[in-house]
Design brief:
Elements (H helix, E strand, L loop, with lengths): L2 H18 L4 H13 L12 E2 L2 E2 L7 E3 H7 L11 H17 L8 H13 L1 H25 L6 H19 L5 H11 L6 H17 L5 H19 L1 H4 L7 H9 L2 H12 L5 H16 L12 H5 L3 E3 L5 E3 L33 H24 L8 H26 L4 H28 L5 H4 L2 H8 L1 E3 L3 H41 L3 H12 L5 H9 L45 E3 L12 E3 L5 H5 L25
Antiparallel strand pairs: 1-2, 3-6, 4-5, 7-8
Length: 639
């Protein structure tokens, strides 16, 4: 290293040390007042800021120039706040609890950490993806309502159909192919079921899908109350205790993270399946029952995107590994907060459908509300102006607004490799999220308590920058007027934004998030449990006879869903559970919910050939076998 380079390096380190030297404003004020009292320092000294007519060197208000602060304040050091740990406990723990309350699917510990990183590094895209998921439910529900014939059971049947369509989309990750998957299944009907039987199985399967979803609403509300209590403690000294410095920085930091309230509420409003494999097993039993098959084939004939998820990788030990459906869960729909493709290809109701751009704009509001509130609070914390803390608010806000753009670019550049896009997005989010957390931590423990950062130099310039040593009057005014107003406005806007989001997701929310009383009522209706003694006697009359009439209607994970005994034409099993056996002549049916305007309820056809059956997948038959199959999901007709 040359002498010039070494000199430049040393000079740079000295300048950085001078700018980064932490200053205790109370100690500095007491030192200067002492020197003014013993006349060792003139009140017209150049270290005092000159405000148009006089030097600011009065007993109650002492303003120092930037140079005066750096040269006069005693013993600059790198010490942090004495009450650093209580400060962190005041808001950091509640914020971490908020992050931990985000709904995390069961996709492995490492991938769950990645979900948290995506939430922290790209909250706009996360909330956009959540709202898009809710809009998918909305559209399927509106579509189901249109396709369900009017009647006293229309609402119940429409919800069941919407749950089934949403479950297909859950597994395939492709909204556009749901119709073909369902149509193929209904057209096949290898078990030769009547329309009433298909309706019954549909409702029972939908009921199980709804019951298989988690609900952490109570825990979420407790965590949010804990966060709000922490904010209140920062505002009210009688609750949080007297702090060693102005509360503006702490309150501003807490408000900057207030978007977590909205994000956590939206995440837990949608919730998710206890496991995506649970959804897969339920749908396997449903398709197996309708087809009359005994085994599952993990194949989606009308969903090419799911097939594209399978990628081959060669490991260091030379072994070849193929990512299957289970491996592809993180980047194929299991994570509701990560959805690279946000196109909504199915129209539910033109009057109520929300466009992706509207959902994006709505997802941006919590971030802008949080950043604006934090910026105003820190800006008006003396010295008024753009300092280091307001600067990091601007920088982190710019990062959060840029992050969804980078997520979109990644999905476009590597759209044919979903796994690579997932890991690239998480790497980007780790940089944005961890950098933001680090800056907030450093700010909270006092790393920005320097003359340079206190002076508002970025907005006032070097000549106009000054440091107000312990401005008690302004501090009390802000604590009683500005801070409560900004905190109340920010939190109210966050809650209002969530209310709007909830209203957007509400139509489809009735499908998977009904009240517990509604679930019980559906169960009674589907299973005939209306509290009548006659029904209870009928339910137990066949026990021990082996005729199947006393068996429960819900199937196990290893067996098909059981139909009502009267619907079965086969012989009972030794255990009283009837098998679904194809008859000599098969007929294809259209359930009542899809047969609006259709004159015939079923049509006779030929029995599928063994070769055709062997090639049929989990969710329908191959595309070439569907030509002329008759019943269609949209515009149902028959040939």
């Amino acid at each position: 290293m040359s002498g010039l380079s070494l000199t430049t390096l040393i000079a740079g380190l000295l300048v950085a040390a001078r700018l980064a030297a932490a200053v205790d404003l109370k100690t500095c004020k007491a030192y200067i007042q002492h020197r003014l009292g013993n006349n060792t320092l003139s009140r017209n000294d150049s270290i005092f800021y000159f405000s148009s007519t006089r030097h600011m060197s009065g007993p109650a208000e002492i303003w120092l120039t930037l140079e005066g602060c750096q040269t006069t304040c005693p013993n600059p050091n790198f010490d942090l706040y004495d009450d650093m740990w209580p400060r962190l406990l005041t808001w950091l723990v509640p914020a971490l609890l908020l992050v931990g309350s985000v709904h995390l699917p069961r996709i492995g510990h490492l991938n769950r950490v990645f979900v948290v990183l995506h939430f922290m590094g790209d909250p706009i895209d996360s909330m956009w993806a959540l709202l898009t998921k809710g809009e998918v439910w909305n559209r399927f529900y509106a579509l189901a309502l249109r396709r369900t014939p009017a009647g006293p059971d229309q609402e119940h049947t429409a919800r069941a159909l919407a749950a089934m369509l949403s479950a297909f989309e859950e597994l395939t990750g492709d909204m556009a192919t749901v119709e073909d998957e369902f149509n193929g299944l209904m057209a096949e009907n290898g078990a030769q079921l009547t329309r009433d039987d298909l309706d019954y199985i549909l409702k029972e399967t939908a009921e199980e899908l709804v019951d298989s979803r988690s609900n952490e609403s109570l825990r979420t509300m407790l965590v949010i109350v804990n966060y709000l209590w922490a904010v209140l403690a920062a505002l009210v000294p009688e609750i949080g205790g007297v702090q060693s410095s102005q509360p503006g920085g702490r309150i501003g930091t807490a408000m900057f993270l207030s978007w977590l309230v909205t994000a956590v509420l939206v995440s837990n409003t949608l919730s998710g399946f206890t496991s995506r494999r649970t959804c897969l097993r339920i749908m396997e039993r449903y398709t197996r029952t309708v087809k009359g098959k005994k085994r599952d084939t993990h194949f989606f004939p009308y969903s090419p995107r799911i097939l594209a998820q399978a990628t081959t990788t060669r490991r260091r030990d030379g072994k070849v590994h193929v990512d299957d459906f289970i491996d592809a869960q993180p980047w194929n729909g299991s994570v509701y907060s990560y959805r690279p493709r946000k196109r909504l290809t199915v129209s539910g109701n033109a009057k109520t459908d929300c466009s992706p751009l509207f959902l994006l704009a709505l997802s941006t509001v919590p971030i802008l509300a949080a950043a604006t509130s934090a910026f105003v609070i820190i800006w008006y914390t003396p010295t008024i102006g753009l300092g280091c803390r307001t600067l990091w608010v601007l920088v982190l806000t710019a990062g959060l607004l840029t992050s969804p753009i980078l997520t979109w670019l990644i999905s476009r550049v590597v759209r044919r490799r979903a796994r690579a896009a997932w890991y690239a997005t998480i790497a980007k989010d780790a940089v944005f999220g961890l950098a933001g957390v680090l800056v907030i931590l450093l700010s909270s423990v006092g790393i920005f308590n320097t003359c340079w950062c206190w002076s508002g130099v970025y907005s006032r310039g070097l000549a106009g920058a000054y440091i107000d040593l312990e401005p008690e009057d302004e501090r009390l005014h802000n604590a009683h007027h500005l801070y409560p107003a900004m905190v109340g406005s920010c939190l109210a806007l966050q809650v209002l934004t969530y209310v709007v989001m909830h209203r957007v997701m509400r139509p489809g929310g009735v499908v998977f998030r009904p009240r517990e009383e509604e679930k019980m009522e559906r169960y009674r209706v589907v299973h005939g449990l209306n509290g009548s003694p006659d029904v209870e006697m009928e339910a137990t009359r066949g026990r021990g006879r082996g005729d199947g009439s006393g068996m429960p209607r819900r199937g196990s994970e290893a067996a098909p869903l059981l139909l009502p005994p009267a619907a079965l034409g086969g012989s009972p099993t030794p255990h009283g559970s009837p098998l679904l056996r194809p008859r000599a002549g098969s007929y294809q049916t259209s359930p009542s919910l899809l047969a609006g305007g259709v004159e015939d309820e079923w049509r006779w056809g030929s029995t599928p050939s063994p070769s055709a059956s062997s090639r049929q997948g989990l969710l329908g038959s191959p595309p070439e076998e569907r030509k002329g199959s008759g019943f269609r999901f949209l515009g149902a007709h028959h040939t």
